[in-house]
Amino acid sequence: MRILVTGGAGFIGSHLCERLLDEGHDVICLDNFFTGSKDNIIHLMDNHRFEVIRHDIVEPILLEVDRIYNLACPASPVHYQYNPVKTVKTSVMGTINMLGMAKRVKARILQASTSEVYGDPQIHPQIEGYWGNVNPIGIRSCYDEGKRVAETLMMDYHRQNGVDIRIIRIFNTYGPRMAENDGRVVSNFILQALRNEDITMYGDGSQTRSFCFVSDLVEGMIRMMECANFIGPVNLGNPTENSILEFAEKIVTITNSCSSIVYKPLPQDDPKQRQPDITLAGEKLGWKPTVALEDGLRTTAAYFAARIARR
Ligand code: NAD
Ligand code: UDP
To answer: Where are the domains of the chain?
Structure first.
């Protein structure tokens, strides 16, 4: 198949492009390089089935493809809050452009939605039927509400125009090729630990997250795209839940670091707990994560250590 991956030069997108090429597909990576980088895809450039287009999905584009994975959107709070209006445009106008393409060429389209559609959730763990608790006017809402509209657009193009859609709700994902400067907890803590700098704990560290290794996520994404007769939304994430404090302690141990923890204010609207219920993914896709947190963290720490050493 000819497969378009928007945001293909980003963290998750680059792993997806690699996997799709390994499976023998033609892959078009479309990216505006806002948070993605050529370093993430340089190793794929020699492959004659791989193409890169520098383009912003807020602008229309005409391509002939069989599948569209729509991942283009900054994902870390630091990046999506840098230009919040642009973040909304990317999720709304960008998704309309990709849905327009899917409609025109009869491609199947998968939208990378997020656990953030559940906001600061009042039910735990989160199931797909939960409508969420999102602050519509807060500093996270450019991302959360943008992704909620993107889901709405997917459903309406499906109902109104018969577009073949898939919606996945991705929970916190980590692994090699996360951006160093993205301010997310995994990259921050690992870099701080490797440099023996203070670990910046926002709040008291009792808030929880559940971290999924990127190879597990990519497997789930492909299974969902190729699954017959199930459009989602489906949660994809690792249900192993940790407090952020426990998480910091694991990273300090794994990296053999002398860092100590310093406490900083909790950002506005920071969700208190997050854990996916992945029963639906198990039933419909036969999917569950396989990489244990400690193993994934070791691989990710080794990646960041190598990056620091290259400087
Ligand atoms: P990332 O920032 O590494 O990747 C996003 C990519 O999209 C980058 O390469 C960026 O340059 C590109 N991009 C951004 N705006 C664009 C635009 N207007 N036009 C074209 N390209 C654009 O983030 P990621 O972690 O790889 O996330 C990928 C997708 O998965 C995003 O849609 C994100 O919302 C979703 N997601 C990620 C996580 C996570 O934990 N990483 C969790 C939930 C959802
Ligand atoms: N966090 C932290 N220190 C950091 C970066 C993040 O304590 O240096 C916290 C953050 O407040 C949140 C959790 O870690 O409670 C996960 O943050 P991240 O930005 O990675 O993801 P999200 O909040 O979008 O799930």
So the answer is: 2-174+212-236, 185-208+240-272+292-309
